[in-house]
Every structure is written in structure tokens, then in C-alpha cells.
Amino acid sequence: MGSTKAGIAAVGFCLPRYVLEAPGSEGVVQRSAPGFDEDPITMAVEAGERALAAAGTRAVDVLAYATSGTAGGGALVAEALGIDPARARDVLGSPDGGETALAGALDAAGSGTSTLLIATDAPEGEPHGAAAVALLVTPDGRVPWRRGTSPSLSAIRSRVGEAGAATVLLSFLTGVEPSDVRGDVDVVRALKGRATIRPELYEAVRRRGRSPPGTEYSQGAYVSPVTYRAEAKARYRLVGERCTACGRLHFPPREACLGCGAAAWEDAPLRRTGTVYAFTVIGKGAAPSEFLEQQEATGEYATAVVALDDGPRVAAMLTDVEPKAVAIGMPVRMVFRRLYTQEGATRYGFKFAPA
Amino acid sequence: MPRDVAVVGAGMSPFGDLKRTAKSLFAEAFSEAVASVDKGLDPAAIREAYVGNMGFGGGQIGNLAALMTEHARMLHVPTRKVENACASSSYAFRDAYLAVRSGAADVVVAGGVEVMNDISDVRKRFWLGVSGDTEWERLAGLTFPGVYAMMAARHMHEFGTTREQLAAVAVKNHANGARNPKAQFRKEITIEKALAAPMVAHPLGLYDCCGTTDGAACAILAAKDVAREYTDAPVWVLGSGAASDHLAVHDRESMTRLDATAAAAGAAYAQAGIAAKDVDVAEVHDCFTIAEVLAVEDLGFAAKGAGGRLAAEGTTARDGEIPVNPSGGLKAKGHPLGATGAAQVYELFLQLRGEAGDRQVANPEIGLAHNVGGSGATCAVHLFGR
């Protein structure tokens, strides 16, 4: 029998980096717009990460990934969040997907199943909007929900645009009492002060994934999907390895301990913060071919060796920052983003943004 | 008993954007090396062949050495490609040296070849990055200029090195290259011109970077027992050292030091029984200006952090206290990846025999060749004497 207590226990949301000034029908004045390395998957990871951090647990029975598009992503998002990908379900192809999945999650919570529902969208085609919302639905969550209980829908839509599966749930957050739930529900504050996207960049983001001529196929510096995914925990979640023999910490992972030569490890999740140890700015036209499409859209970019606060250093691209603003010693935090698309497959992984 | 080993002949093709094939360049370098043997050499006497090549562009990436030696008039010879990125042919040279030193062969050839300008710019960008760490560095959007740029940024941050000091390296090496008839860039430049050039990877500008080059070079090595049959002016290999390091620069303890260079140089100095101060002329790996600054420090010509001053103060000029890169270096002579180490040997063969023409250093007795693979994952150092 369902429990009447089932409800939402923790929340998180993600608005992408930019807004597009593009008035439309139904009072729309602005639309959220992803940067070149953001998409429904990266926004879902960020929203989910916030909800799980607020909840203080990663123990969920199901991850439901809802989007109005037809491309799934639940398994990848689960892996990036440290949740077993076998627990992921995709709810695809409907702008009602977020509400449908939430209704299902509440039913399941009544039977004792906890669900991290993530509704995420950045529809292609005509200008729409972009956002992701993550709701942790548990048997003892306090916030209830019924269809049609989003009083600020038109206000949110006017600032976010039509973000498919996420719009209604984002509106719903604005009506939640902060004291009833864990996590940030202040959508209105987050809508302020966002940067305006250049129309050319907006168009380039919509066209991305179609490699420039000559770069469609990998050549000299290929990282195969097998090799790439072998270290997914490091690439997606910044999880290093500690030698169980001598305790030395390694990131990225190694085949043998630099300290004692042993090859027995335990996972060591690293703090996702650090400082710029060294950096450079790759000028236009000088990028490796994999990043040529990005560079044509966004111009020069900064890349760095980051000294993680837990000790190891790692090479990483910097994002959400003007190259001129980067300096040695600058505090940065890890973000999960698109790296590049090759042979039709998009590679995701860590970058670092100003802390 | 290990045997002493001499270089008895050396040759080099022109370096540049040549619109020529690898086999024609290698054959030219080999023919010149054979012709340089004072008392003549029948190529049939060559018992082993070592061909350095990175494989840039992907053309004939397998069995390249057979094709090169075939067109260099050596059939039915044990041959192989040696690959260690930009250090490929210094490792080919080391392997050749070890074969002779061990007694396995009396006369061997070590060379290298690379053709880099026969593919589109987009394909070049793929291949220019292949010797860096592809799994992490490359995925951070880094390029070789980018990795060396970060080393430069750290050197500036830790030691106060300036862009002007880096530019002085380029100015010196272009001045030397202008006197080398086989160099890719035979034009002097000024500090002002170097500083005003477009940025490639901050803080490195266009003149801080070497170009992409086609070329080949060869050296013929012989055991002491037979060397006098070929020449009365052999150039002796006094020491050979080589070392590796972490492939990715972020894994290294320091970004302002190439430990592979220090280890390789230490082994070579120890074998030769000499110290850095005994070196009279050096060909060092200046793929970027900062790379020469790191090299002169890690080889012991300057204290750590003081390397930026050497070119700026004239210490490493052709008539300076320790001439560095009288050939023009990778910077001006050119850097056909797999040929560079062999081309350094060619230059020192000429310098130590007093045959370097307009760029001859005054009466050198000991020469040093320093060749780095990628950003320092591999390095080989060789010492030569008259």
C-alpha cells in the first residue's frame, strides 16, 4: 500500500550559461541557452549533483532521465553521478516527460522505492529554452505534487523559454517552501545576471556535432571509446585511486603505484576544487582537430594544469571564463561538460570553471 | 669487452617544405653520408640499419625502414624503424652505437626521416599532437605549443624569465640558420619582430615555435678496429645516455625541468668522464625557445632558473662561451621529427672536423647532442670528441 508521506526530499536545478534575447509568444522575453560545452546531459549531471549533494546521499533505487528529445542519457548521467547505470530509466520523446516520470516516481516511493528524477531539455529547432531539474523522490519526502500545481509557469516560461520536460518542474520549484526540502529552490535569483549569448554562437551550438571537413574521422591522436570509458570514474567524477599497500594517492589512475609498485587500489573521490598551476591560451586555428569545431564557435580558449586541492595535478580545459581573466593561482572547480564529438560520439568529461 | 665507436661519415638532405618523398630524402642523406667517408665505403659493408621516423601523416607507417634502406641501395640488410617521437633518430643512433659497441656489427648506419608538409593543415593538426599524452593532455585541448607554453609560464612564474629572453633564443638560432645552406629558415630576425609576432599559445608566439619540416639525415658508425680503414679523422662517440619520464606533463614533479634530460646527460657525462663545462659546442632540442632554456639548465650549462639569460647575454652565441645550436637548431634549421637526432649528429660531425663552413665554431674538441621526444617523455644525449 502507498504511504501518504511519499514526496520530494531534495532538489537541484541547472540553468545553462547564457540567455538569448528572443521574444516570442505567450510573453516569452528571454530563453536560456547552453554554451558550446553544455547540453541536456551536462545540465542533468549538474542538477543531479546538486540534488544529491543537498540530500547527502547517493543511495537511490532508480534514476529517471526525462527529456522531450529522442536521445537517451540516463545511463551516462548515472555513471557521472556515481549511481549504477543499471538503475537508469529513460523517459523520452514528450514535453510531459518530466511530469509523467514524477508521477511514476511518487507511486514508486509509496512502495518504498527512491527515485532521482532528472528532467532536462534544450530542444533543437526553433528557439526554445534550456534547463534541468532534479528531484529526489523518497518514501519520506515532505513535498507533494499534483499535475497543474505550478502557479508561476508563465513567469518562468517568460525568462527560460520552453525547456520541454523541465519547464513545468522548474516552475514548480518556485512554489516549494525552502524549509520543506533540501537544496536550492531559488530559481528567480538564478535567472538574474546571466550573460547574453552572441547570435552566431547560438547558431553554432545548434549546429554542433557536425565536424568540420577533414575532422570527421579520427587520425593520429585517437582515444578509442574503450580506452576512454575504462577510466570513466576519473573522467566523469574525479575519482582517483589510493594504493592499499602504501596509501599513496594517484590521479589520473595508474597501473602501478609510484610509491611502492603495488597494484591494489581503493577508489579515492577527490574534492572537486583546485587552483590553476599553469595555463596557456590556444589561439584560433591552433587547436587540435577534435576542438576545431568548438574553437570556430567560441574563439581562443584557455587550458591548464590544475593543482587539485587533494594534491594531484591534471591537465584540463577551462570553461565559463574569458582567457584573459585566467591567472596562475586562480581557484577553480570541476564541472562536467561536453569535450568533443567524433565519429558521431560525444565525449563527456571534466573541465574546470572559476570557483 | 665493449668497443670504442666512431662516426666515420654523415649526410643530410636539405630541410624545408620540399614537396619531396621520404625515400628520396633518405636516399640523398645516405648517399651524402657514404660520400663523406674519406677513404670510401661500399654500402655492402653495412651490417645493420636503424631508421628513426615518427610516422607523421600515416604514410607507410609499417615497414618504413625496409623502403628507406631499399632505396638507399641496401638490400637484404637487417633494418628496423625506431620510434620515440621527436627523439626517434637519436634512439636509432643509440641502438646503432650499442650494436657496434657490443661487437655485434662492425659498420652500421643510423638515420632518420620525416615528411610533414605533404598533408592538409587539418590533418597536420591531428598528427602534431600524437606524441603528447593523448588520453589526458590531448583531451584538455592541449597542443605541443600549449604544453611548452605552460612550461614557459611556470618558468616565468618561478624564475622571472621574460618573453624577451625567449625571443633572444630565436634571434640567435635564426642568425645561425642564416649561415646554414641546408636550413629551412635562412633569415635573421630581430627581438622586436619576434615579440610582435602573433601568439600561438600564450606566452609563446610564432617565433618561439619551430616549423614543420621535411628532411632526412644519416650517420655511419664503425668499430675502432676498422674505423681507420674509412677515415683518418673519425669522430668518437664518448658517451651515450638516454632516459624516459612520465608521458603527461601534469604527472611530473616539476614543469620547469626535464628529468629525462638530466638523467640522460648524467649517464653520458659519466661514461665519457667529463662535465658540462668541458663541452665546446652543443646541438640541443629547441622545438620551442623555452625548450632551449630548459635544456641549457638541465644539461648543466646554467643553474636552474638562470637559463633565460644565456642567449640574451651572448653566452650561447656561435662565438660565445658555449655555442648552442650553431646549425640553427630545430628553430631555424627545421625539425623533421624523426630526422632531428641524426641531423644533430651530422652537425657535430662537421663541427668537430672543422667542416661547418660559415657557421664553424672555433676549434671545438667536445660536442654534445641533446634530443627530446615530445615534451620530455624520452631523451637521448650523446657526447662526441675528435
Describe this structure in words.
The complex is a heterodimer of chains A (355) and B (386). Helix content of chain A is 24%, strand content 27%. Chain A has helices at residues 40-55, 74-81, 97-110, 153-160, 167-174, 187-190, 199-207, 225-230, 232-237, 292-298, and strands spanning 7-14, 18-20, 31-33, 62-66, 88-91, 115-121, 131-138, 195-196, 239-243, 249-250, 265-269, 273-282, 301-308, 313-317, 331-342, 345-354. In chain A, the strands form four sheets. Chain A has a five-stranded mixed sheet, with helices on both faces. Chain A has a five-stranded antiparallel sheet with strand order 14-13-12-15-16. Chain A has a three-stranded mixed sheet with strand order 3-2-8. In chain A, helix 1 crosses helix 2 and helix 4 crosses helix 5 (167-174). Chain A is globular, with a radius of gyration of 21 Å. Chain B has helices spanning 22-35, 64-71, 88-102, 121-128, 144-159, 163-177, 191-196, 224-227, 259-272, 289-298, 308-312, 329-332, 340-352; strands at residues 5-12, 48-52, 79-82, 107-114, 199-201, 204-205, 215-223, 235-244, 281-283, 366-373, 378-385. Helix content of chain B is 34%, strand content 18%. Chain B is an alpha/beta fold and 386 residues long. Classes of the chains: A alpha+beta (355), B alpha/beta (386). At the A-B interface, strand 12, strand 13 and strand 14 of A face helix 4, helix 5 and strand 5 of B.
